[in-house]
Amino acid sequence: MRYVQLRAFHNVAIHGGFSRAAEALFLTQPAVSDQVRKLEEEYDVLLFNRNKKQVTLTHAGQQLLEVTRRMFDVEQQALDLLSESRALRAGKLRIVADAAHHLLHILAAFRRAYPTVQVSIDAGNTETVITSLHAYEADIGVLGEIPQVGDFDVLKLNSTPIVAFASRDYPLAAGESVTFAELANHPLVMRERGSKTRQKLEAMAEQCGVTLTPLIEAEGREAVREIVAAGGGVGFVSSAEFGQDNRLVPIRIDAPEMLMDEALICLRERSNGKLVHAFYEIARKLTQGGAEGKIS
User: What local confidence, expressed as pLDDT, does residue 149 receive?
Assistant: First the structure.
């Protein structure tokens, strides 16, 4: 087994094909195909299912990809360590967030400090964030809870209660608060089941003896917001995420407070990466009253 063979395999796997892998490696397609073939023949294993339209990983290929993701990520960390100034001058930071607005002030400060670093932000629920970090598809995540697992470094950003919200002309908008029993009689607009906001809301409603059944399930916070703004019913969000929208009115839920803890998280093994470390340092300086923790 040689480095060039693993590199060829890894790039075919992450790029989804031999042609795109060859482009990424600045090689010819036959050269990449030959390296993968030699790797398969040497260990008598099939790593890819090949057909004319697409290339997919076999079970063995999926297992090997988990190893090569770690291998090449560590290689990148070594490169960053040896070329710190370049990493902070021309690197790329990948963030996946359940709500990007929690990061706006941090991003602004980071951009001022490192104006040439590329930053990408993808949206996702808790499950997506955790999966992306474990798969090395993201460097930093933003979650609406403190994860109860031992392989993350955590920096708490804030803690705010869940509120209901409705369009300004919706009947409930005239009141200051609403009970779970009252909410159960209205059309409810909720996020997908992976949403921690929804999980906490439903758990508290159940404790209060009420079952909340959504009339509409929508993928993502913005979709819920637009449906509610159009008069589609009542939505739910943490007060920090409600933001400024003249179409909508927040409504306090008359029940024990349900708090959402927004936090930055990264894999502990990657916390010393130059870009991750720089972003965390800026976040620490800007976070007031938050508490950093290492979950063990």
Answer: 66
Number of helices (H) and strands (E) in the chain: give both, helices first.
12, 13
- Strand residue runs (E) in the chain: 48-50, 55-57, 92-97, 118-123, 140-143, 152-167, 177-178, 189-191, 216-218, 235-238, 248-253, 259-267, 292-294
147 vs 181: CA distance, rounded Å: 31
Give yes or no for residue 157 having a pLDDT over 90.
Answer: no
- In the predicted model, what is the mean pLDDT of residues 49-75? 89
Question: Token digits for 175?
Answer: 């009141």
Chosen CATH of 3-79 out of 3.30.930.10, 1.10.287.1700, 3.20.20.70, 1.10.10.10: 1.10.10.10
- Name the architecture of domain 158-260: 3-Layer(aba) Sandwich (3.40)
| Mean residue pLDDT across the chain | 87
10: region left, alpha or beta (phi > 0 left; psi from -120 to 50 alpha): alpha
pLDDT in tens, 112-125: 999 988 899 998 87
> Position 111: which residue type?
R
Q: How far apart are CA 126 and CA 145, in angstroms?
A: 8
Q: Where in the chain is the domain with CATH 3.40.190.290?
A: 158-260
Q: What is the pLDDT of residues 261-295, one digit of tens each?
A: 888 999 988 888 888 999 999 999 988 644 444 33
Side-chain half-sphere exposure of 278, counting CA atoms within 13 A: 23
